[in-house]
Amino acid sequence: MAALAAAVACGGCEAPPSGAPEFAIIVTGSVSPEPLPFAGTYQYDAGGETVTRDLTATGSFATSFTADSLRYVRVVATSREGTYRLEILRDGEFLFDSTARPASEPLLYGGEVAAAD
């Protein structure tokens, strides 16, 4: 829940088009014996433009932004030990929950990601 609070309270998050929904992306990795490192990319449409952002973190990651739509999220662990989980919220409601997955599997959301692999 701390990751969600950080995402929602983000002061440096991108200013969105008015009336567009707010999305939050939260990735939580296992922390024992070592925090799980991971990296990925997410893409969304905002104000008529397609925006692609990279993410890199160890243990956990959270961000929020306003957008017309979320195209995809792809996260891959850079270690093969541990588990991690991807959660996506839209206007505070759960849109997607990957549940805990082994680090050997990528975390994927969105149809375009499957086509890109």
Give the termini distance in whole angstroms.
31 Å
The poorly predicted ranges are 1-13, 113-117
- The total strand number stands at 9
- Seen as an oligomer or otherwise, the chain set is single chain
Element string (H = helix, E = strand): HEEEEEEEEEH
- Bin the strand percentage: over 45%
Given the helix and strand composition, which structural class is it? mainly beta
Number of helical segments?
2
User: How many whole angstroms does the radius of gyration measure?
Assistant: 14 Å
Overall average pLDDT: 84
Q: Mind describing the biggest β-sheet? A: 5 strands, antiparallel
Report the principal-axis shape.
Answer: elongated
Helix content bin:
10-25%
